[in-house]
Write a structure and sequence with these properties.
With about 280 residues, the protein is mainly beta. The protein has a domain of about 200 residues: Exo-inulinase, domain 1 (Jelly Rolls). It is built from one helix and 15 strands, in the order αβββββββββββββββ. The strands form three sheets. Strands 1, 4, 6, 9, 12, 13 and 15 form a seven-stranded antiparallel sheet that branches. The longest helix has 27 residues.
């Protein structure tokens, strides 16, 4: 071994010994079981100290193994096989088995009316993928039209908006009749597109609106609504005020007469900071 190698080996040993000394010194300072502090300032308007060891920890959720897949706490509304989580309303508002056709890994609008989830939801994170017909048919609102309605009342528009002009608050990703998206991120007809939606349900105290609904939407990975306040239910050619309704209602997919494809649909109920599940 050369003198240079000896020196290098000695330096490596010194580094290891130094790191070991730091670890021992840190362990000596740390009290057994110490996972935070109670001698720190209180956080404003919260019952917790900074780094409070008693503060509840978030639940452990396993992410999906593939991008866009459902995490472990999601309610999978379509798994590529059947529409058992959905229903259609009959003449007397009875729940009927959906007539929308299911193909290899996706289902398609058109047949028997709109779909409703059998389960009700309030504030949610929603993921779904959709594709409009190719070759395209029609223009404006008659081209690949459908819609995603959290609580059945608040629509994020589905439309073929690739080189297809319509009114701004009715194009794809619009909060229908109220707010156009911040950008047009449309893919070509027939290509799969993604919506990732965070919907905050309105809250009521009797007839009074305590908090309006808010919508955050990412369209093909691009933020097109950033916690945008909804002015009430979304409807065609009118402005509706809020009216008190249940804290949870079914999710709704619109049948507008155009064959729009959907796949990989899942939802998570939103939870608050240091709070149980928001219901």
């Amino acid at each position: 071994m050369t003198l240079r190698q000896v020196a290098a080996a000695g330096a490596s040993v010194a580094i290891v010994v130094g790191f070991a000394h730091v670890r021992l010194e840190t362990a000596a300072r740390q009290q057994p079981g110490e996972l935070g502090y109670t001698d720190t300032p209180m956080l404003p308007n919260q019952p917790w100290h900074v780094h409070d060891p008693a503060r509840p920890h978030p639940p452990i959720i396993t992410p999906a193994s593939t991008p866009g897949g459902a995490p472990s706490d999601a309610v999978v509304l379509f798994d590529g096989k059947d529409l058992s989580k959905w229903a259609q309303h009959g003449p007397k508002d009875e729940l009927l088995t959906p007539k929308w056709p299911v193909h290899d890994g996706y289902f398609e609008s058109g047949g028997g009316g709109s779909l409703y989830t059998r389960e009700a939801f309030g504030s949610i994170q929603l993921h779904l993928e959709w594709a409009t017909p190719t070759p395209p048919k029609g223009t404006s609102q008659e081209r690949g039209n459908s819609g995603v309605f959290p609580m059945g009342l608040y629509e994020v528009q589905v439309l073929d908006s690739y080189q297809n002009v319509t009114y701004a608050d009715g194009q794809a990703a619009a909060l229908y009749g109220q707010w156009p998206p911040l950008a047009n991120v449309a893919r070509k007809p027939g290509e799969w597109q993604t919506y990732d939606i965070v919907f905050e349900a309105p809250r009521f105290d009797g007839a009074r609106v305590v908090q309006p609904a808010f919508m955050t939407v990412l369209w093909n990975g691009v933020l097109v609504h950033n916690r945008k306040e909804l002015q009430g239910p979304t409807v065609h050619r009118r402005v509706l005020p809020y009216e008190p309704h249940a804290a949870e209602l079914p999710l709704f997919l619109q049948d507008h007469g155009n064959p729009v494809k959907f796949r990989n649909v899942w939802v998570r109920r939103l939870k608050g900071y240091d709070q149980p599940e928001t219901r």
